[in-house]
Amino acid sequence: MKRIKIADIILIILFIISIVIALWALLGSSPTFEQIILGFILTIVFGIGVKVASIHTELKLLNRSFHALASDFKEHIKHK
Questions:
Q1: How far is residue 61 from each of residues 15, 20, 32, 56, 74, measured CA to CA in Å?
Q2: What digits encode the pLDDT tens for the residues 45-56?
């Protein structure tokens, strides 16, 4: 079972708010077009930020694993 992270919950809430603002503009014409676009852009930018942070974390882990593997090979060569 996959755990839901706080960032995922915030992203879902932002998406729902963006949809509500868009529907509100279609039905009641209260928010401006720029406000609707701002809601969607905010959601997209936050989503991209979450993905970039996730990729950065994975790259750090991969880098650490690679350095550990390299040191293991160096030790193996010394023992030969």
A1: 30, 39, 44, 9, 20
A2: 999 988 888 888
DSSP H or E stretch at residue 14? helix 6-28
Phi, psi dihedral angles at 56 (to 5 degrees): -60, -40
Longest dimension (CA), the chain: 78
pTM to 2 decimals? 0.66
H/E stretch holding 37 reads: helix 33-79
11 is a domain residue: yes
What is the three-class DSSP state of 5? coil
- Provide the 10 A C-beta neighbour count for residue 61: 10
For 56, the domain range is 6-79
For the chain, how many residues are written? 80
